[in-house]
Amino acid sequence: MGKKEFSAIDYSICDPKKCSKDGICLSAKACSYKVIKQIDGPFEPPIVIHDLCMGCWDCIDACPLKAVYKKRIV
Ligand code: SF4
Ligand code: SF4
């Protein structure tokens, strides 16, 4: 039951103002499933709706600061 891996954000690294001029999360933009969202708007770190993550890892490739990583549930 359930997925074993999903993407997660390292909030000690994530800094939206460093990755785009308009404060838009590039990983959120890259996620076709809208699983990463800036619910508080531009310039705020995104959240990941873990249950909906498809494990495609497009978000990891898209993050210039490498703040997105694969999290494993054991
Ligand atoms: S997750 Fe990556 S791309 Fe998204 S706001 Fe944070 S640093 Fe920028
Ligand atoms: S791994 Fe894919 S589905 Fe999951 S948050 Fe990243 S881009 Fe979206």
Contiguous runs where pLDDT drops below 50 for at least 5 residues: none
Query: Which CATH class?
Result: Alpha Beta
| Strand arrangement in the largest pleated sheet | 1-4
Number of helices: 3
N- and C-termini, Cα separation: 12 Å
Averaged pLDDT: 95
- Named CATH architecture: 2-Layer Sandwich
Number of domains: 1
Main sheet overview: 2 strands, antiparallel
CATH-derived topology: Alpha-Beta Plaits
Helix content: 10-25%
Percent of sequence in beta strands: 15-25%
* SSE-based structural type: alpha+beta
Give, in order, the helices and strands: EHHEEHE
Give the distinct bound molecules.
Answer: iron/sulfur cluster
Q: What's the β-strand tally?
A: 4
Account of the protein in words:
With 74 residues, the protein is α+β, with helices and mostly antiparallel strands. Helices cover 19% and strands 19% of the residues. It has helices at 16-19, 26-30, 58-62; strands at residues 5-9, 36-37, 47-48, 68-72. It has a two-stranded antiparallel sheet with strand order 1-4. Strands 2-3 form a two-stranded antiparallel ribbon. The longest helix has 5 residues, at 26-30. Bound molecules: iron/sulfur cluster (2 copies). Residues 7, 30-31, 33, 35-36, 48, 53-59 line the site of one iron/sulfur cluster.
